[in-house]
Amino acid sequence: MYVMKNTNFRLRTIEFIMIVIIAVYLLIPRMAICLDRTVTKTEFEGSSSLSIVNGYITEVFNAGGGNVYLPAGTSSRWVGHLQMGGRVNLIGAGSPSHPSYDGAMTTRGADGKLGPLPTTVIQYQVSVICIEVNIETNIDYTKPVRISGIRFVSWRDSTNPGSFMDIRSAKDLRIDHCQIEGSGHMISMSNPYGVTNSTNGVIDHCNFINPITLGGSDSLYYGVNTGSRTYVEDKPVGMAANGDAIYIEDCYFENPYHPVASMGGGHYVLRYSTIRDTYATSNGFSVDAHGPGFSFWPTKTLSSPYTAGGLTLNVASTTGFPDVASNSYVFIGSESKLITGKTSNTLTIASGLSNSYSAGTSVTTTRGGFVAEIYNNTISSLASRNPLNQNAIGLRAGKGIIFNNIFENHRHAVGIGNDPYTCTQGGLDHIWKTYIWNNTYTNIVPDTAGKNWINPGGCSSTYIHPASSCSETGKEVYGMKDGTYGDTGCPMPGYVPYTYPHPLVSGAPPPVSGENPSPPKNLRIINP
Description:
By secondary structure, the protein is mostly beta strands. It has a domain at 300-365. Strands 3, 7, 10, 13, 16, 19, 22, 23, 31, 32, 34, 36 and 37 form a 13-stranded parallel beta sheet that branches. Strands 1-2-4-9-12-15-18-21-30-33-35 form an eleven-stranded parallel beta sheet, covered by helices on one side. Strands 24-29-26-27-28-25 form a six-stranded antiparallel beta sheet, with no helix packed on it. The longest helix has 26 residues, at 2-27. It is globular, with a radius of gyration of 26 Å. The relative contact order is 0.08. Mean pLDDT is 77; it is low at 23-32, 125-139, 192-196, 214-218, 482-487 and 513-528.
């Protein structure tokens, strides 16, 4: 009898333990299991290189996260998508985090260029490396993504401009210690397919190199192109943004057209970086914020005629157009309207357009860039150019916070104006709350009044004017009160720059604006 009771007790104990184990498993179904995988040199250089790398990434992602290490060497040409998952790091042998790190990208030359180069990995591809986060069913937006220590070299021909990464809704993204060479769009941020999560994170200690001789359309490349995201009219800046932006810091750009740009509500912070030998037309600009109507989204065409006053536009497909929640406008002809509904082949607009349009008319959509924070950089062009490049910075939408920069060899440091859709749509996304102060100007030779200036074209005089004093308020340009735009400009009241280095670089926990530390709980003080 005793033996039977003891046996029953043990069985019940085992049953209880099993129930607890099953309950824990169900309550925590995705417990993190760190997993590392290393791509062999043979795999990396073989014809299936990209497929093999994607396979390792999926394996690590499914295990809860970890690292995929690439070897020293040269990959075969990558064509298609690089499918990065949340909490997965892709680490080349040029990264400080690689087990066989050789010290690449740790020293900075007199011109600001980082070196020695990551000699370990060169990757060629025909179209783009597409990092898709929160689009595929096995992708987790809530975890960070990192790409480090890789030299990306664009394979290009007469039909391929050599674009690189199309970053889609990545959370806490970090791209570091990389060199990216080529023309076209090097890194673009977008939120296609109705995804409303916006990419945030940092690009640090990278070189962006345009190896093509300056001049001609082959030289036109974007370094980092930020957007598209849900448009917020008065988005916080500095510390108040709580890290919700793309930070480009400690980077080097050579021969760029637009080293950094924004559209579609983009918010970037360019800081502690060097931009050398900017390429622009005689009326162009380098660092940029686009106005409304410049689109990451594919241009569509009307599949049937539109009659003035109607609320529906019929298009062949709306794939790639933003979700209704992103506050985007449709642009057609010289008109635009807020999108209030979307199906697979129709767009519903808030009110009717004034004009009728025939089938085949182009339709696109996006807002202007929203915020450009630009400080502690050196932006220079060639002094030998005649004439000098027009503008080191060109702002055409949103807010600008520009201070502590060194501008060299341009006709103007900052040019401010409006794009056509701003003018035709009653001031949509025009420049406002822009502050310019405490910059250094070397060989800035203006061809009109002021080292910084308001471009008089379009509707600039309607929507943009300098503040008459630092206390002036309203939706206008601030900090440009006396036409000299140097140390006499007005700092942005209450502005505090976001933490530098970025927390993803330093490893420190991100700060939260306006939040005081919580008091300790259950604190006991014992007298000795």
